[in-house]
């Protein structure tokens, strides 16, 4: 039992793979393990665990100290040297250099980073204490163990373990330390814990001890301490793919409302607020989410328990909530009513629980209220915020643990149409039921509101207000309030004014309500304000309960406080104010219903009464009705050169009403002037971007030793020969049980068959001669034909004789097998079958195999119980039996196969007599994916290796025509052949011997693969260009590169001629255009090339749109270059996958089939339908058919199997696919007719987890589970396998586990099974050594004797004697197998395919890894390896090659093998859930299984992946390609540099114009025009911006420090601000290295922590310096630095504010009125200003509306009075364009604003994670992982990126210093030398630590 407890505990404490959810589930599922009789076992196991944790912790701590002490002793290694292995350079010269480097370091490190395993000791401690706390609550015998464990952990020196102990004590006290004795036990030694970091938790413990239960259960107490009692971890992540791909997620409506209500430009407390602005923002928000997937995959949920928290505090929010729900429910067709849900509670509401079960959301998106300022919140009191904090804390915890959702926060988010970034949070422990009950009790109360409007009155209101429900609601509310109080109440005196307000809302144009901010102040009495709020409250209630049929299209615009008060003021000030006639009509009819007499002076009299009673007071400032509306035009500096002039020419045609700028000459006085600013006159050359990338050719061409240069080149191409050989191996294909039909033969087989047929025809010619006597005579064969026929017959006879001899050899070998060794005998025949090509001999050998299979089958039938391994062999035998029978039938050409083979069929199915239905059923169920398939294509000389499908012939034809091609086809379908065919066409073009073909790939692994394949196919004609190195780029004919490197070439003037030779450009994995990190690079390279392109992908949903875009680009290109009209772009879409992907769950040594339908329910299917790529294997089709038949289905029946497949005896796969379509059509009918109960019944019956026999996931630590999993794969013949996970550490750990598993197995076998054999061999070896020693002595004496008798003729020994001596020597040698048994690896102790592989290749590949990674060599001997990005190039390629050759059978990999890499495998497994495992990643990774031509079927296995996540992965739709605008500030600057330095100005000009004018974002012709003009405006203002920063001159040439931007463009816009700070000599003045690193981290890192600066708006230096930062966050910057950054941002706001204004003004000039249409609901608020002259409405339109002066501001925002100046003043990147008339892309690439304080949309400021400065201090990845809450993969990528920035800056400074002496003036050396010294030192220190940590 001890082992079982230890296994169970290790599983629970496995923080890497056991999720928090599984931790809690399995504790409650295993009560038997906690019985008192096992207490001793628990005590021993827990003690060992605690000791192990302490041991790990102490080792970790010591290593951290060592890192800190030794890091400064390291010298820097340049980034280019880091990847020296990339070019496989093993030369002596390089080794000498490395030795010199090593000796200079003065330190050697034995540990290898690639093999470090990290144990999260803190989380293990946390889990163990929680487990024991649970046990002591449920089982009293655990109490002592719990307290002992607490005490042992308390003694730890590890600070974070101490924090865990304190947190456990606090939680224990809160959840119920029932007795004083219990409290004393918990707290008796707390006085010894005095560290500063412990104080917050100690304060909570003290509060718990000093407070009674009632006080603890208050929201005030809970809100202060919940974060300590139930903490959560937060990580700011890019989650766009989750939002895009998931089938369903939830948005909490109340927190969305409250979050937007705190928006920086919304002021609800001012002038009683308005409803339209906020609802407009929410629509923009929801529409942007909608744009992620172009479907509504979210549900907006509202909970009354949330609403009750703030209901009484803010009437305007009540009204907004009611408006929002009504508006979205009634008006938003894109969402629909079912997407808006209201529930009483999320905790105990049965309706919500049912909804969750049906919808199965993947995550919840909400705001947790933690970032609002509790002391100074503008909307809520402190008590209300406390309630909200408590309920949302519990809300998140409940959804994580009870609903099993992921949690994403909208506290701070970045949301654009191509990007979603936000906080993902995870609670450390679940909240108890007691806490939920307490919080729900605090926030609940009853609502008692009566309705007074009678039915008759309601009908009267309906008749009056049928066009607009707003008037109905106002009248109903006034009536209800009058009835509630009395007619004489104060509120009734406001009735006419309220009716006037709603009449104006109905009548006024939205454009006329943008009132000026300068409205004179209006003071309202408390009673007046309270009455308005009471009205809003009642109005909200009536709206919520409204059942009126009146139109609700304008319900979003229900109240406008500023308009209401302005109306009062204007009427009061103007004695002659009158209203429009149509407004009066509304007023008269409404007042009549209210029985209020209407008069001309009614409103003036009412207002005068209020003024006289002092309920309202107006300022005396008069309103100028005739104020002039003048706008000052922005002065834009004119930058002019032919390229700029050509691009901006359309702007000059715009009239003055369309634009708001004047072009003025560029002069020095407009350059931004700052303190310390340096003045530049010339361009400081920082070198070409390409020259910084290590060039292998130039590096070795400098050697004076020509022999060395030749050796290097030869070794390089030998290496690619080796790699190409590993790619080209044919014997790794899955020929086992491949079933062949007559038309499925290959060209080679067809030729053999044709030859055989001709020979057999000739042999039977004499027999048939008599039959043809009466037929017309045919032409006699010619002499040549007779000779050919004779030769063919002679060859056939010779081949038949040869094969007859081979048959005898096989028979002789079969006799050597034991009679019951069927496996060995069958394998022998399988291995020899390829040698038999003639029909007769192949049939003869097949019959022998068939006889063995029949006997083997009988032996299985005799057994009653089969082991797992025997069951697997039996299943494979059935498939093999069927395959042999099929081929024999084909070769014998049986006419009536069903009758002839019936005996064998009955044996196979084990049923007699056998019905046809059962026979077909057996094939679909057991043979499944291996059912024979007829090839549809015809042989094509262009692809001699296989018969292409029709769609493949289509792309061959398109390449021949030099068309651009887009191919969308499943992974492993063969689309890559288009690439190599295009390469061959370029190489074979005799008219163009210098033409270049470019292949663009997203990953290094894919680049190396393509290089190896090209070497194999075409020879050494290729070059490679990546970010690390380049090789043969100038002389190659095929260039293999990545998008970033190709962009460098296309933008380099030095390589312009080379780029003009590009004839074809191939973009593999083109869906990477949608990747948020570098999507713009893909798009820019496609725009910058000037040739046809090929785009390949398996995961693109809008390929037709992509084709239209490429067509538009090519037409634009042809027009600019004045070439012929291009051919149409060829679009090929192929959806069928030849190899099925069978999905399984793994648990307890079993694989459970996972049917796709079992993952769906009726709700999902009836609302969304089946996925577009939904398909079923034969077995899955049969299971679905059975499930449907078991229900009372009401749909079109499906024919029986016999009816469908007869008269054929084989269920051919093509026919099976047709049957599957019939079944799917029947199932779709159920969906279309919404037969929900039937669908759910079918889904449940197909779900394996509904059975009690399966326990998924398996309760075992992954370290022990993985070995059993590998054995299961081996037994079921499902190897090779790739196991994917996101953790490189887990990859290494699992490899170690499997290797150790087989090492221990071998150790056991050597002591048991092979013990006696090994002992005998050891004795024999000792004897042999003794004999050899004696023989050597004799030989020595003979040699001496021979030297003494030189003249004696010894003569030669007879041949017979020599032969006898050789035989004697053989007796004294061990065979290879014997030697392997003694010193090698036994067969059962490894997965490696040692005897069926190319041994020379294996030895060569393993030798390459032996020195750099000996541990991996140990794994490889066991057939195991791992693969991730941190392995060097040679190691990765060796792993790939060994796996392809089936030597390595299982690889644990991160996503490095997911994209396009040729790694054919039978099985792909996924282990450990993570955010990186999304639907797109799943599709790419699973595509490795079942590769066309290599595997008949693929298998997908899930291990420990939650069922909801599996559902998300499998049913998510293939996403569309969506790209962001490729234009940016630095991209424009790079285009300027290209044009200025290009030899061919026309080429540079035209390619640049295409790149700027043809973004993918604009699809329709109208959109293309708008995007083109928008980009022109951006270019115009960006040129102004660059000039004012002194980065370009008036001709657009780069000057000053602009060269830095060419190398730092990937960190835009921080690079621009960095240059500005350099320019102001800031870094000259800062001398502390850590302060410089802190500043650089503020600029170049952007990872917010979920901690808000409480005084973000204060600029006081004192406050900033005295406030203490949270731990692991960046220090605040000094006032001086902030001032410099502010000056830069002010310039950005000034210039790009003008850009925003001009673009919006231009778009409004198009008169589309789009700015007056709500974005999601498409409700139109179209302008209509036909008012009567001289009326109040007329004056508003002509004298007060600010819309014409603020064209950038949306009319929907106008009611809040926001001006363009205010918007720009409050600007931050998160707010972006929400308040603008048009939704512009204002990302930091477009508007280079640098927000160092990481503001959110509420203007709250967040601290940034200090991982860079922390690492600069201690140099330890492990500390960052533990302290900074970052994953290890994240850490490496983040540190590597920051290191690249430092290296780039250092190299730029070095280039400038090297070039400066060549300049005559030489006056700037004093500026650069101190800079270089400081930054070089920092770079050296940082990179030294990095290379030490990642050695």
Q: How many β strands by DSSP?
A: 29
- The assigned CATH architecture of the domain at 690-731 and 949-1135 is 3-Layer(aba) Sandwich
Largest sheet: 9 strands, mixed
**Poorly predicted residue ranges:** 61-115, 624-630, 730-737, 742-774, 1656-1667
Report the principal-axis shape.
Answer: globular
How widely separated are the two ends? 43 Å
Approximate strand percentage: 5-15%
Strand order of the largest sheet: 12-16-15-17-14-18-19-13-20
Average of per-residue pLDDT values: 84
Indicate the percent of residues in helices.
40-55%
Biased composition (Low complexity): 96-110
Biased composition (Basic residues): 766-776
Biased composition (Basic and acidic residues): 783-800
Domain Helicase ATP-binding: 956-1118
């Amino acid at each position: 039992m001890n082992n079982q407890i230890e296994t169970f505990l290790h599983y629970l404490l496995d923080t890497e793979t056991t999720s928090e959810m599984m931790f809690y589930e399995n504790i409650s599922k295993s009560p038997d393990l906690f019985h008192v009789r096992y207490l001793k076992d628990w005590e021993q196991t827990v003690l060992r665990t605690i000791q192990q944790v302490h041991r790990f912790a102490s080792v970790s701590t010591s290593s951290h100290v060592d890192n800190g002490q030794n890091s400064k002793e390291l010298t820097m290694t340049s980034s280019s040297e880091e990847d020296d292995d990339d070019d496989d350079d093993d030369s002596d010269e390089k080794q000498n250099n490395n030795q010199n480097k090593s000796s200079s370091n003065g330190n050697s490190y034995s540990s290898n980073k690639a093999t470090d395993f990290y144990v999260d000791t803190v989380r293990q401690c946390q889990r163990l204490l929680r487990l024991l706390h649970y046990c002591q609550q449920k089982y009293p015998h655990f109490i002592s163990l719990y307290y002992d464990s607490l005490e042992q952990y308390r003694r730890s020196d590890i600070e974070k373990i101490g924090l865990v102990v304190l947190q456990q004590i606090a939680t224990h006290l809160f959840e119920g330390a029932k007795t004083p004795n219990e409290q004393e036990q918990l707290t008796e030694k707390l006085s010894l814990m005095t560290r500063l970091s412990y104080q917050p938790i100690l304060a909570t413990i003290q509060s718990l001890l000093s407070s009674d239960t009632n006080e603890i259960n208050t929201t005030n107490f809970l809100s202060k301490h919940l974060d300590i009692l139930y903490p959560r971890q937060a990580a700011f992540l890019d989650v766009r793919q989750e939002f895009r791909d998931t089938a369903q997620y939830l948005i909490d409506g109340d927190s969305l409302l409250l979050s937007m209500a705190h928006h920086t430009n919304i002021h609800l407390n001012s002038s009683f607020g308005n409803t339209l602005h906020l609802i407009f923002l929410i629509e923009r928000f929801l529409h942007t989410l909608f744009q992620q997937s172009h479907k509504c995959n979210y549900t907006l949920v509202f909970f009354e328990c949330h609403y009750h928290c703030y209901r009484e505090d803010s009437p305007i929010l009540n009204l907004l909530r009611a408006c929002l729900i009504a508006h979205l429910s009634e008006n938003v067709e894109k969402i629909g009513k079912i997407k808006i849900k209201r529930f009483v509670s999320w905790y105990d509401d049965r309706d919500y629980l049912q909804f969750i079960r049906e919808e199965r959301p993947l995550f919840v998106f909400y705001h947790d209220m933690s970032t609002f300022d509790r002391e100074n919140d503008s909307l809520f009191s402190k008590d209300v915020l406390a309630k909200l904090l408590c309920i949302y804390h519990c809300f998140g915890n409940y959804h994580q643990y009870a609903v099993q959702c992921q949690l994403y926060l909208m506290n701070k988010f970045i949301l654009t149409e191509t990007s979603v970034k936000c906080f993902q949070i995870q609670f450390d422990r679940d909240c108890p039921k007691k806490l939920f009950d307490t919080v729900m009790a605090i926030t609940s109360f009853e609502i008692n509101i009566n309705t007074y409007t009678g039915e008759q009155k309601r009908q009267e209101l309906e008749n009056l207000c049928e066009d607009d429900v707003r008037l109905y609601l106002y009248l109903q509310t006034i009536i209800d309030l009058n009835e509630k109080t009395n007619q004489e109440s104060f509120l009734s005196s406001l009735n006419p004014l309220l009716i006037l307000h709603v009449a104006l809302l109905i009548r006024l144009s939205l454009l006329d309500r943008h009132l000026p901010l300068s409205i004179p102040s209006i003071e309202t009495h408390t009673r007046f304000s309270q009455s308005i709020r009471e009205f809003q409250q009642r109005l909200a209630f009536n709206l919520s309960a409204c059942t009126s049929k009146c139109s609700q299209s304008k319900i979003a615009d229900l109240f406008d406080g500023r308009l209401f008060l302005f109306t009062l003021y204007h009427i009061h000030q103007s004695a002659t104010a009158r209203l429009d006639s149509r407004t009066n009509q509304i007023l008269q009819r409404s007042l009549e219903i209210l029985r209020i007499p209407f008069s001309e002076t009614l409103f003036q009299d009412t207002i005068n009464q209020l003024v006289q009673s002092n309920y309202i007071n107006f300022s005396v400032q008069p309103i100028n009705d005739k104020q002039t509306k003048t706008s000052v035009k922005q002065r834009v500096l004119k930058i002019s050169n032919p390229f700029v002039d050509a691009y901006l020419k359309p702007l000059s045609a715009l009239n003055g009403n369309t634009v708001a700028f004047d072009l003025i000459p560029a002069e020095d006085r407009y350059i931004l002037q700052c303190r310390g600013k340096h003045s530049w006159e010339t361009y400081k050359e920082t070198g070409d971007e390409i020259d910084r990338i290590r060039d292998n050719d130039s590096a070795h061409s400098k050697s004076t030793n020509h022999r060395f240069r030749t050796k290097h080149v030869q070794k390089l191409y030998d290496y690619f020969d080796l790699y190409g050989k590993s790619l080209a191996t044919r014997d790794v294909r899955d020929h086992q049980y491949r079933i062949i039909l007559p038309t499925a033969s290959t060209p080679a087989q067809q030729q053999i068959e044709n030859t055989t047929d001709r020979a057999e025809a000739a042999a039977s010619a004499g027999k048939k001669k008599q039959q043809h006597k009466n037929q017309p005579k045919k032409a006699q064969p010619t002499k040549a034909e007779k000779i050919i026929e004779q030769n063919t017959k002679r060859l056939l006879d010779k081949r038949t004789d040869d094969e007859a001899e081979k048959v005898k050899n096989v028979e002789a070998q079969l006799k050597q097998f034991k009679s019951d060794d069927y496996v060995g005998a069958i394998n022998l025949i399988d291995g020899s079958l390829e040698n038999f090509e003639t029909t007769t001999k192949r049939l003869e050998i097949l019959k022998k195999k068939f006889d063995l299979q029949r006997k083997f089958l009988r032996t299985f039938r005799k057994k009653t119980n089969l082991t797992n391994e025997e069951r697997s062999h039996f299943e494979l035998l059935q498939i093999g039996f069927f395959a042999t029978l099929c081929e024999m039938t084909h070769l014998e050409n049986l006419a009536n196969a069903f009758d002839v083979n019936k005996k064998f069929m009955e044996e196979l199915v084990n049923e007699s007599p056998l019905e046809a239905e059962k026979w077909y059923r057996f094939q679909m169920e057991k043979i499944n994916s291996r059912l024979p398939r007829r090839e549809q294509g015809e042989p094509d000389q262009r692809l001699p290796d296989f018969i292409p499908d029709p769609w493949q012939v289509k792309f061959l034809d398109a390449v021949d025509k030099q068309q651009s091609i887009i191919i969308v086809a499943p992974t492993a379908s063969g689309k890559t052949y288009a690439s190599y065919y295009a390469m061959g066409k370029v190489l074979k073009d005799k008219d163009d011997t210098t033409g270049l073909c470019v292949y663009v790939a997203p990953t290094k692994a894919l680049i190396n693969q393509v290089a190896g394949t090209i070497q194999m196919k075409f020879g050494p004609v290729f070059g490679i260009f990546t970010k690390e190195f380049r090789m043969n780029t100038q002389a190659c004919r095929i260039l293999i590169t990545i998008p970033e490197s190709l962009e460098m070439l296309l933008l380099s003037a030095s390589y312009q001629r080379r780029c003009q030779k590009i004839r074809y450009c191939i973009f593999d994995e083109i869906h990477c255009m949608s990747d948020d990190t570098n999507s713009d690079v893909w798009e820019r390279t496609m725009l910058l090339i000037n040739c046809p392109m090929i785009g390949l992908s398996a995961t693109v949903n809008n390929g037709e749109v992509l084709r239209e875009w490429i067509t538009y680009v090519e037409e634009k290109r042809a027009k600019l270059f004045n070439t012929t009209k291009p051919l149409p772009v060829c679009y090929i879409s192929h959806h069928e996958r030849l190899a099925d992907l069978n999905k399984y769950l793994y648990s307890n040594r079993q694989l459970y089939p996972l049917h796709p339908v079992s993952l769906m329910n009726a709700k999902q299917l009836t609302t969304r339908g089946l996925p577009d790529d939904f398909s079923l294997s034969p077995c899955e089709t049969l299971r679905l058919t059975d499930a449907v038949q078991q229900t009372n289905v009401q749909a079109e029946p499906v024919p029986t199997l016999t009816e469908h497949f007869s008269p054929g005896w084989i269920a051919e796969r093509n026919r099976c696919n047709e049957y599957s379509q019939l079944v799917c059509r029947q199932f779709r009918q159920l969906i279309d007719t919404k037969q929900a109960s039937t669908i759910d019944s079918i889904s449940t019956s197909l779900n394996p987890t509904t059975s009690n026999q399966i326990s998924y996931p398996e309760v075992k630590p992954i370290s022990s589970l993985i070995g059993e999993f590998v054995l299961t794969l081996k037994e079921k013949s499902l190897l090779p396998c790739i196991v994917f996970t996101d953790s490189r550490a887990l990859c290494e750990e699992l490899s170690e586990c499997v290797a150790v598993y087989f090492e221990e197995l071998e150790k056991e076998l050597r002591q048991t099974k092979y013990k006696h054999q090994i002992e005998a061999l050891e004795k024999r070896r000792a004897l042999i050594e003794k004999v050899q020693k004696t023989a050597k002595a004799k030989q020595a004496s003979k040699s001496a004797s021979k030297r003494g008798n030189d003249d004696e003729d010894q003569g030669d020994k007879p041949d017979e004697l020599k032969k006898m001596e050789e035989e004697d020597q053989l007796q004294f040698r061990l065979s290879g197998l014997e030697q392997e048994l003694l010193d090698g690896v036994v067969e059962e102790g490894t997965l490696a395919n040692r005897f069926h592989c190319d041994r020379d290749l294996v030895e060569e590949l393993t030798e390459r890894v032996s020195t750099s990674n000996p541990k991996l060599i140990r794994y490889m001997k066991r057939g195991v390896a791992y693969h991730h990005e941190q392995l060097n190039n040679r190691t990765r390629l060796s792993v790939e090659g060994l796996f392809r050759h089936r030597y390595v059978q299982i690889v644990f990999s991160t996503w490095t093998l997911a994209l396009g890499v040729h790694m054919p495998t039978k099985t792909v497994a996924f282990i450990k859930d993570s955010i990186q495992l999304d639907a797109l990643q799943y599709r790419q990774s699973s595509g490795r299984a079942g590769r066309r031509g290599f595997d008949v079927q693929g298998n997908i296995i899930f291990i420990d992946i939650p069922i909801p996540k599996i559902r998300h992965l499998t049913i998510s739709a293939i996403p569309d390609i969506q790209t962001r605008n490729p234009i940016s500030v630095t991209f424009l600057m790079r285009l300027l540099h290209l044009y200025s330095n290009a030899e061919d100005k026309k080429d540079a000009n035209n390619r640049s114009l295409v790149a700027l004018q043809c973004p993918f974002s604009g699809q329709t012709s109208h959109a293309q025009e708008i995007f083109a003009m928008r980009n022109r405006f951006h270019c115009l203002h960006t040129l102004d911006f660059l000039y004012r920063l002194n980065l370009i001159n008036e001709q657009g040439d780069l000057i000053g420090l602009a060269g830095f931007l060419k190398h730092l463009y990937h960190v835009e816009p921080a690079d621009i601000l960095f240059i500005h700070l350099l320019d102001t000599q800031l870094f000259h003045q800062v001398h502390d290295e850590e302060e410089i690193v802190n500043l650089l981290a503020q600029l170049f890192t952007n990872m917010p922590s979920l901690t808000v600066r409480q005084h973000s708006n204060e600029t006081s230096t004192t406050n900033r310096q005295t406030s203490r930062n949270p731990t692991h966050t960046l220090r605040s910057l000094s006032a001086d630095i902030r001032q410099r950054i502010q000056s830069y941002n002010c310039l950005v706001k000034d210039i790009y504010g003008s850009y925003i204004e001009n673009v919006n003004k231009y778009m409004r000039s198009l008169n589309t009125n789009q700015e007056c249409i709500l974005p999601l609901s498409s409700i139109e608020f179209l302008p209509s200003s036909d008012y009567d002259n001289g009326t109040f409405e007329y004056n508003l339109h002509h004298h007060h509306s600010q819309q014409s002066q603020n064209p950038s501001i949306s009319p929907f925002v106008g009611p809040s009075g926001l001006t363009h100046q205010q918007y720009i003043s409050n600007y931050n990147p998160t707010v972006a364009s929400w308040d603008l008339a048009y939704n512009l892309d204002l990302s930091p690439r477009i508007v280079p604003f640098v927000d160092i304080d990481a503001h959110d949309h509420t203007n709250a400021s967040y601290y940034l994670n200090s991982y860079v400065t922390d690492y600069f201090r201690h140099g330890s990845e492990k500390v960052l992982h533990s302290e900074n809450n970052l994953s290890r993969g994240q850490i490496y990528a983040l540190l590597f990126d920051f290191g690249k920035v430092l290296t780039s800056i250092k190299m730029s400074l070095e280039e400038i210093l090297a070039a400066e002496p060549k300049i005559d003036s030489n006056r700037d050396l004093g500026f650069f030398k101190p800079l270089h010294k400081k930054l070089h030192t920092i770079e050296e220190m940082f990179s030294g630590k990095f290379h030490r940590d990642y050695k």
